[in-house]
Amino acid sequence: MLTALDGMIAELRQTGVPISLTEKIDAVQSLRHLPLAERDGVKAALRTTLVKSHDHELAFDALFDLYFSPPVEDPEGPQPASRPPATVNGQNGTGAGSLGSIDDAGLTELLLHALQDGNDAMVRTIAGIFVDRHAGIEPGRPVAGTYYVFRTLRVIDPDKLMARMAAADPPANDQSALLRRLQLDANEARLQRLRQAVEAEVRRRLVADRGAEAVARTLRRPLPEDVDFLTSSREQIVAMRSVVDPLTRRLGGRLAEKRRHRRRGALDFRRTVRRSLDTGGVPVDPVFRKPRPSKPELFVLADISGSVSTFAAFTLQLMFALRSQFSRVRSFVFVDGIDEVTEVLQKAPDVIDATRHINAMGSGVWLDGRSDYGHAFESFWENWGDQVRKRTTVIVLGDARTNYHDPAAGVLKAVRQRAAHLFWLNPEPKAAWNSGDSVIASYQPFCDAVRECRNIRQLKGFVEDLD
Question: What's the distance, CA 50 to chain centroid?
C-alpha cells in the first residue's frame, strides 16, 4: 500500500500537482484509521489530503485507479479446465459464467437496462466483458490504451444507446422544457459512467501487463493550468472557462487595490484642525479621508491573427468574463486593423456566439489579414486615443510579431502617458521574443510589465504579482 502511495505521489508531482512533505505524511497517517479493503474510503481520504484544487481531481482519479487498481478478474466467470478460455480478440467470449454465454446483442440489452436502472456494478461487469472480447489488447505494447477504448466503444455504440434511452423516456409533449433537459443530462451522465467503466477496465489490464508506473508515463498529460495556449485544442480552451471567472474577479480586486495604495483621499479639514490642538494649532499631522477608488476602466487589445488563433479564443473568453469586474470594459480585436467589439460581447449570450459574430464581421482586418501591430495601434490612437484616461488600465494580448512592418512604438508611448497602467501579456516563450519579426523590445519600455503568458498558471502569476 505504501509503495503504491509513494508511486502515485511521485507521478502527481511529475504531472504538476503540488504535494508537500507534510501532505504526504497526512496521507499516510489517514490510512492508519481506515480499513484498507474499502477502496472508496481510501480514495476519499487520499483525495482530501493530497488534492487542493478542483482542477487536479481528474489527474488524481486517473492515477489512483492505476496505483490502487483491484486485481484483474475474468468478468465472464471462472473457466472450467475442460473448456477453452474466452478469446481476447475474438468475436464472442465463451466463459461458463451466465453473462459470458450471452452474445453481444443480448449484452447490449442488459447494458441498456443496467444504465436505466443505475446498476453501476452490472455496467462495470458488462464493460469488462466487452473489453475482453473487442479491445484487442496486445501484451507488452507501450501505449496509453486509447485505441483499445475506441475499439470497445465502437461495438457498444454509445450514440445508439443514447437514442434508445431517449426513446424510452415519456413523450416530449407531456414534459416541461426543464424536465426534458434534466432527463437528457441524466442520460449523458449514465453514458459517461459507461465510458469511465470501459477506460477503467482497459487501465486495469494494462497495469496487470506492464505495471502502474509504465502505464502512468503513457497517460501523463499536463494539468489544465499548464496547457500551452498556442498548442491547446479548442476543447482545452473551453475547459479553461471555470478558471477564467475567478481570475477576472481577482484581477479586478488587485487593480482596485493598486489604485487605493497609490493615492491619498481628500484632506479631512475638520479632523486635521482637531488633531492640531495637540501641537498648539500647527497642523503637523494632516488627516486624509480614506480613498474610495471606483472600479478602474479597462481597455483590452487582443491580437486575433492566425499565428495566435488558439490564444485568441482564450483572450475572447477572458474579455467576455471581465465585463462584470470593471466599471467599463472596452474590448478591441486587431490583426492589421482594429475594431471595437465591446457591444458584441455585451449582447452575446455566451462567448461562442460572440466569437461567431466577430468572425462573421471580419473584425480586426484592414487590408490583407496579416499582422501589422503598427497600423493597428495607429488606428486605435486615431479613433479612441482621446478616450484613454488616468483611471484606465490597458492590457495588450499578443505576440508582437509585425511581419516586418513599422511597429509604431511611439503610439504605445502616447497611450501609456495617458493611461494609469499598461500591461502586455505575450503567449510566446520568452526565448522566442525579439527573434524574426518579433518587436516586443520596442514596446517593452512603455509598459508597466511585459509578461510571458503561455498558460493559466502564468496568468495567475501575473495577477498575483500586481501590487
Answer: 20
State how far the Cα of 76 lies from the Cα of 292, in Å rounded to an integer. Answer: 71
- Tens of pLDDT, residue by residue over 264-286, are 667 888 888 888 888 888 887 88
On whether the CB atoms of residues 83 and 90 are closer than 8 A, the answer is no
For cell 494609469, the residue is 420
Number of H helices, E strands in the chain: 20, 6
Q: Look at residues 449, 51, 459, 48 and name the one whose alpha carbon lies nearest to residue 246.
A: 459
Per DSSP, the three-state class of 253 is: helix
How are beta strands 338-340 and 328-334 bridged, if at all? antiparallel
Write the CB contacts of 37 (distance below 8 Å, at least 6 apart in sequence). Answer: none
Low-confidence ranges of the chain (pLDDT < 50): 74-96
| Structural domains present in the chain | 2-67 (no CATH), 104-211 (no CATH), 235-262+294-465 (3.40.50.410)
- In DSSP notation, 173-224 reads GGS-HHHHHHHHHHHHHHHHHHHHHHHHHHHHHHHHHH-HHHHHHHH----G
Distance CA 335, CA 302 (A): 9
458-461 long-range contacts (CB < 8 A, ≥24 apart) are 459/247, 459/425, 460/225, 460/247
Task: Tell me the C-alpha distance between 452 and 433, whole Å.
Answer: 10
Nearest Cα neighbor of 64 from 76, 80, 53, 48 is: 48
Q: Indicate the residue type of 266.
A: A
Cross-strand pairs, 333: 302, 339
Percentage of the chain beyond pLDDT 90 is: 19
H or E element at residue 250:
helix 241-261
- Please give the DSSP secondary-structure letter assigned to residue 93: -
Three-state DSSP state, 449: strand
The amino acid occupying position 381 is W
According to DSSP, the residues that pair with 297 across neighbouring strands are: 328, 392
Beta bridge partners of 334: 303, 338
Residue type, 369: G
Q: Is the overall model pTM greater than 0.70, yes or no? A: no
For residues 288 and 285, what is the distance between their CA atoms, to the nearest angstrom? 10
User: What is the pLDDT at residue 426?
Assistant: 93
Q: How far apart are CA 319 and CA 163, in angstroms?
A: 38
How many angstroms separate the CA atoms of 259 and 296, rounded? Answer: 8
Q: What element of type H or E holds 111?
A: helix 104-117
Q: How many CB atoms lie within 10 A of CB 435?
A: 10
Cell of 318: 477572458
